[in-house]
Write a structure and sequence with these properties.
2 domains; five-stranded antiparallel sheet; about 170 residues; alpha+beta; PH-domain like
């Protein structure tokens, strides 16, 4: 358990897009809330038709449809901009390396390095189908650890270490 686990994160565009869909669109409550609000605006528009206010009816139906579609358009435009900004493609690109030792881990990139304790991990999603781990230090961002990037240790070793240190943060998806 004290042996170091080393992971080198090299990401492809596909891996990043899958993470963003999981992270942003995988939030069922957020998507459901957005859908309900859009539907309520459309229903209000339909009620205006019954009240002989077709202009308001069309306006609210258009607003509800715009509200629903714009969220997803902005999301995909943002993902496209980020993949372009970082030069992501189907060729893996190095971003950072993590080394887990003892009760913490080091993160090193070309520009910076940091050390965190395992107590900072709020969520770890082991995506077996995609062969990647999403390691969240906050609710809003995660480190992506492809299974193929394990240079020392295995995803199972990391799972065991996280379970021992932070029982309850590991999710098998």
């Amino acid at each position: 358990m004290d042996e170091a686990i080393r992971v080198r994160c090299q990401l492809t565009e596909r891996q990043y897009r899958r993470y963003m869909r999981f992270h942003v669109l995988g939030d069922k409550k957020g998507v459901a809330g957005h859908l309900v609000l859009s539907a309520l605006i459309v229903v209000f528009g339909l009620m205006n038709f019954r009240a002989d206010s077709p202009i308001l009816g069309y306006a609210f139906i258009a607003l509800g449809a715009y509200f629903f579609v714009s969220r997803y358009l902005r999301f995909y435009m943002s993902v496209n901009r980020i993949t372009e900004q970082f030069g992501l493609s189907e060729t893996p690109k190095f971003f950072y390396a993590l080394t887990f030792t003892g009760d913490g881990f080091d993160i090193k990139s070309d520009k910076e390095q940091a050390r965190y304790g395992l107590d900072r991990v709020v969520r770890a999603c082991f995506m077996e189908k995609d062969q990647i781990i999403y390691l969240y230090l906050t609710k809003s961002s995660a480190f992506l650890l492809p299974y193929a990037g394990f240079e020392q240790g295995t995803p199972g070793d990391l799972r065991a270490r996280l379970n021992a240190a932070r029982g309850g943060v590991v999710e098998e998806l």
